[in-house]
Design brief:
CATH architecture: Alpha-Beta Complex
Mean pLDDT: 91
CATH superfamily: Spore Coat Polysaccharide Biosynthesis Protein SpsA, Chain A
Bound molecules: guanosine-5'-diphosphate, magnesium ion
Distance between the termini: 41 Å
Largest sheet: 7 strands, mixed
Number of strands: 9
Length: 244
């Protein structure tokens, strides 16, 4: 009992949020993280890739309110892609756990306590949010986008057998050491990165748990997913098929 208590006290969560043109979302997401993680030790690491919309100005204002030890701004000069944004954020993380989530409110911070609780209950190395089990879902996507996401998951399920229902989602909690290990063995840079991460983690035998989330399409700003990303995804799938 005493030990469990101590364990809880010493856990720290580094929440990495990559941003590109998220001026309208970043304050809200940070506010909501603070609201939902009341008794938890955490820091937020914003990795902004030189957003022309002034995302960083907003983050700097928030640092004045919450403190520079709670909100870390670790910017890069230009848009360099999501995979390397996570690696960059991870370098600055001081927690023993790392959460990765989007800035656009598609990943609602209200789920964070569920991720943390599930990890504590099971001792899992990774807890991943899933849209594709009971209790999870997608809101606000048109049929095409739903089919693309579903198709991507079904394809990957069929060929890769990872034992995880949502491969392309990116709302996840990792033990930091596990994230460091898995991220270093990943080669992809774009959207395929999420799938590569979880497939490699599963192949390495890490304990992965899933919690249902409802993914809500962004209200402000625009998605960076395009046709070329779909081609990249398919290439990534084939690559994983032959290399893992
Ligand atoms: N730092 C950084 N963040 C990015 C980059 N591309 C996308 N993001 C952020 O990554 C998250 C997911 O991107 P988004 O466009 O919403 O993808 P979607 O949800 O799949 O449509 C958001 O927080 C974006 O601001 C990038 O190249 N660099
Ligand atoms: Mg999004």
């Amino acid at each position: 009992m005493e030990e469990q208590h101590q364990q809880k006290e010493t856990n720290k969560y580094s929440i990495i949020i990559p941003t590109y043109n998220e001026r309208l979302n970043v304050a809200l997401i940070i506010y909501l993280v603070f609201k939902h993680l009341k008794d938890i030790d955490f820091e937020i690491i914003v990795v902004d890739d030189g957003s022309p919309d002034g995302t960083q100005d907003i983050v700097k204002q928030l640092q004045k309110v919450y403190g520079e030890d709670r909100i870390l701004l670790r910017a890069r000069p230009k848009k360099l892609g999501l995979g390397t944004a996570y690696i960059h954020g991870l370098k600055h993380a001081s927690g023993n756990f790392v959460v990765i989530m989007d800035a656009d409110l598609s990943h609602h911070p209200k789920y964070l306590p569920n991720f943390i609780r599930r990890q504590a209950e099971t001792g899992a190395s990774i807890v991943t949010g899933t849209r594709y089990v009971n209790g999870g879902g997608v809101h606000g996507w048109n049929l095409m986008r739903k089919l693309t996401s579903r198709g991507a998951n079904v394809l990957a399920q069929t060929f890769l057998w990872p034992g995880v229902s949502d491969l392309t989602g990116s709302f996840r909690l990792y033990k930091r050491s596990v994230l460091e290990d898995v991220i270093n063995s990943c080669v992809s840079k774009g959207y395929v990165f999420q799938m590569e991460m979880i497939v490699r983690a599963s192949r390495k035998g890490y304990h992965i748990e899933e919690v249902p989330i409802t993914f809500v399409d962004r209200v402000y700003g625009s998605s960076k997913l395009g046709g070329s990303e779909i081609v990249e995804y398919l290439k990534g799938l084939v690559y994983l098929l032959v290399t893992t």
